[in-house]
């Protein structure tokens, strides 16, 4: 039983128990057999991420530059590079302005796994893959309306800077576009 399951004291701080085991072992490639659980997490967070149908997720995973998870679905990150065939207005916005990049389409952390640094861990792994592939820029968008303050805080701490804004989905959503240089 881990500290996360039973609660207790860790590094002098009281830890609340978590109802299920949080995976701490590895970052794994998302296999086809896991698509349904990844889809369930994505769609539970659709306000922040946008709803996906099963076929759309399968298409994104087949084209992904990076598609990794922690645990069955404690967290996942899905990124595409500039060569993907993707009709997302956000991806298209970046294509019109950058010639070579890696675009983070979505990063999700299950509510029971928040605050454990899983998104930061996935990003660190992604940045290693980005550097190894010789890419200079990582891009993403974050909702402005409806707001996503947790994503704002994470991406700001990782060195992303705003490079634009747009209203999408017929004005139902406003997003901010961010870039992070790998030349640090």
Describe the structure.
It contains seven helices and nine strands; from the N terminus they run αβββαααββαβαβαββ. By secondary structure, the chain is an alpha+beta fold. The protein has one domain: Gcn5-related N-acetyltransferase (GNAT) (Aminopeptidase, 3-Layer(aba) Sandwich). The protein has a seven-stranded mixed sheet, with helices on both faces. Strands 1-2 form a two-stranded antiparallel sheet. It is globular, with a radius of gyration of 17 Å. The model is unreliable at 1-23 (pLDDT under 50).
Give the oligomeric state of the chains in this entry, treating copies of one chain as homo and distinct chains as hetero: single chain
CATH superfamily: Gcn5-related N-acetyltransferase (GNAT)
The largest sheet is:
7 strands, mixed
Mean pLDDT: 88
CATH architecture term: 3-Layer(aba) Sandwich
Taking the alpha carbons of the first and last residues, their distance comes to: 40 Å
N-to-C SSE string, H for helix and E for strand: HEEEHHHEEHEHEHEE
């Amino acid at each position: 039983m881990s500290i996360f399951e039973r609660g207790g004291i860790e590094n002098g701080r009281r830890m609340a128990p978590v109802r299920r085991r949080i995976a701490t072992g590895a970052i794994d490639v998302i296999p086809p057999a896991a698509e349904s659980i990844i889809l369930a997490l994505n769609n539970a967070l659709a306000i922040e991420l946008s709803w996906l149908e099963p076929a759309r997720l399968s298409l994104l995973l087949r084209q992904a530059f990076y598609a990794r998870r922690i645990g069955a679905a404690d967290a996942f990150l899905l990124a595409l590079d500039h060569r993907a065939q993707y009709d997302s207005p956000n991806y298209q916005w970046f294509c019109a302005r950058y010639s070579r990049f890696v675009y983070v389409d979505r990063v999700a952390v299950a509510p029971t796994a928040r605050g454990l640094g899983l998104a930061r861990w996935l990003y660190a792994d992604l940045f290693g893959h980005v550097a190894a592939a010789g890419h200079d820029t990582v891009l993403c968008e974050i909702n402005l309306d409806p707001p996503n303050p947790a994503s704002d805080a994470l991406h700001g701490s990782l060195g992303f800077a705003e490079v634009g804004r747009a209203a999408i989905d017929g004005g139902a959503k406003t997003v901010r576009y961010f870039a992070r240089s790998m030349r640090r």
